């Protein structure tokens, strides 16, 4: 889940600067692995670097750095080392080095990378770890954004980043870039990929809202679709994107493959058309529809008359969740069902 990036987008929308905190180095036992990030603003945080006193201090430092320049004229990088001993109340015995990067409001690279990730395009964040640079450099399979300040460094970083992109299982790694006529530069290469747990939820009624509250705490990304703008709450978690449109069927036809789809709109006719296009696609991880066993039988008969094969109909989950009536009970049951399907697919 890339909650930190969504946090940067939110900060830009609010017109405020943010601090991006990255675990650059982890030695011994640490709460989180290198490459993990969180975004901090003056009044909010998105993502986590492991919680506890380390995260508490990191947030405090980040806000202190933000306060040093309220006019947004620099995006300098700061690196700090934290021994995870008794002074932090964490007896892990390890040490973590954190990078603090100021991200200016409206930074173009944030929009570019968010757009790329929304299309399912993976990329690598290249971050200097010595605190001596204020450069942002990002690499995808066929594009680059920003610079490390030297064409030779950029070329070296690009080559190594694309090696990581070619390996779906690659993790963040520290590397030393040695270019002619320059001092060597240590950088963190951090692959960023779209979540493999994408939920596409149609319907912002009582159950939809309850389900989003549950999903907000899970490692997933949610696209939440409804034509009624007033049905969405004012504040959404950073991993939830609302889409107000009366073209829900078109959204369903174009949504990323291997998504987890849920139809729970205010209209049985719309639920039917959504399920029809999804079963015709067939490239989903999960296709669920709210309703009773009677609704399923009725829909199955009508879908069969529209040419949907029995094998496709067998993949429709309805009813969903548990046999509860309260929206919150249904929501918890549905979320658990999604997690079980996801876990089964990963084995």
What's this model, at a glance?
This protein is of the alpha/beta class and 347 residues long. The chain has helices spanning 3-14, 52-67, 108-118, 151-165, 206-215, 248-254, 268-281, 293-305, 310-313, 327-346; strands spanning 18-27, 37-40, 45-47, 77-83, 95-103, 123-128, 137-140, 144-146, 173-177, 185-192, 198-202, 221-226, 240-244, 260-263, 286-289, 316-317.
Label this structure with key terms:
Rossmann fold, 5-stranded antiparallel beta sheet, 10 helices, 35% helix, single chain, 347 residues, 3 domains, 16 strands, alpha/beta, 6-stranded parallel beta sheet
What features would you describe in this structure?
By secondary structure, the protein is of the alpha/beta class. The chain folds into 3 domains: 106 residues, no CATH class; 88 residues, no CATH class; 149 residues, NAD(P)-binding Rossmann-like Domain (Rossmann fold, 3-Layer(aba) Sandwich), CATH 3.40.50. It has 10 helices and 16 strands. The strands form 3 sheets. The chain has a 6-stranded parallel β-sheet with strand order 13-12-11-14-15-16, sandwiched between helices. A 5-stranded antiparallel β-sheet has the order 3-2-1-5-4. Strand 6 and strand 7 form a beta hairpin. It is elongated. The two termini are 19 Å apart.
């Amino acid at each position: 889940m890339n909650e930190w990036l969504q946090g940067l987008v939110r900060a830009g929308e609010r017109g405020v600067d943010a601090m991006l905190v990255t675990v650059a180095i982890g030695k011994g036992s640490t709460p989180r692995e290198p490459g993990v990030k969180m975004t901090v603003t003056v009044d909010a945080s998105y993502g986590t670097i492991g919680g506890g006193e380390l995260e508490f201090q990191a947030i405090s430092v980040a806000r202190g750095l933000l306060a040093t320049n309220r006019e947004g004229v620099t995006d300098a990088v700061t690196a700090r080392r934290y021994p995870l001993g008794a002074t932090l109340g964490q007896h892990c015995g390890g040490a973590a080095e954190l990078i603090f990067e100021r991200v200016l409001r409206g930074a173009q690279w944030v929009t570019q990378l968010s757009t790329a990730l929304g299309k399912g395009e993976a990329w690598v964040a290249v971050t200097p770890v010595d605190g001596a640079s204020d450069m942002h450099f990002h690499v995808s399979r066929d594009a680059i954004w920003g610079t490390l300040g030297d064409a030779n460094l950029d070329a070296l970083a690009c080559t190594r980043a694309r090696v990581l992109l070619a390996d779906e299982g690659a993790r963040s790694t520290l590397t030393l870039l040695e270019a002619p006529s320059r001092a060597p530069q240590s950088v963190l290469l951090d692959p960023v990929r779209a979540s493999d747990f994408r939920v596409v939820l149609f319907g912002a009624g009582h159950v939809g809202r309850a389900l989003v509250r549950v999903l907000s705490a899970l490692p997933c990304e949610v696209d939440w679709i409804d034509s009624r703008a007033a049905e969405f709450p004012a504040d959404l978690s950073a991993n939830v994107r609302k889409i107000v449109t009366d073209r829900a069927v078109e959204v369903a036809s174009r949504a990323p493959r291997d998504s987890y789809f849920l139809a729970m709109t205010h209209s049985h006719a719309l639920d039917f058309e959504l399920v029809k296009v999804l079963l015709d696609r067939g490239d989903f991880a999960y296709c669920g529809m709210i309703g009773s066993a009677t609704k399923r039988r009725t829909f199955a008969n009508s879908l069969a008359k529209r040419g949907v094969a029995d094998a496709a109909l067998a993949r429709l989950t309805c009813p969903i969740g548990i046999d509860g009536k309260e929206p919150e009970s249904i929501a918890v049951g549905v979320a658990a069902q999604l997690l079980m399907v996801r876990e089964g697919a990963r084995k």
